[in-house]
Amino acid sequence: FIEKYNWDINIADVCKWHAEELKELFPEVSEHLDEIREILNVEKDKYYKTKRKASKILEKLLSEGDISTATLIEIYDSCCKGQSHYAILNLLGFSNFNSSSF
Predict the structure, then answer these.
(1) Highest mean pLDDT range out of 1-10, 54-63, 69-78?
(2) Which of 50, 69, 84, 93 is the most buried (most CB within 10 A)?
């Protein structure tokens, strides 16, 4: 959502705000904010790496012609495990897919 809606927000800051609000109930969250920030940075890096890889694959496939459903499944299997296929399709620039498309 951050990228899609061009939000100027840092998820680690949101976690810090929540930790401050919940400190009395869950003090351990505040104690581990550095680790949380590190995890979020790793996940953010993985997201952008996957996005770059998918873009390169898409460019190659588009230069070769139409993209079949089988090819989209192959893309998903090769580089995008753990993400929903709708997120992958949107990542690749396909915005008009829904559950009835498959």
Answers:
(1) 1-10
(2) 50
Nearest to 92 by CA among 71, 9, 6, 100: 71
Q: In the predicted model, what is the mean pLDDT of residues 34-45? A: 94
Q: HSE-up of 66 (CA within 13 Å, CB side)? A: 3
Does the pTM surpass 0.90? The reply is: no
Determine the Cα–Cα distance for residues 20 and 41; give it in Å rounded to an integer.
20
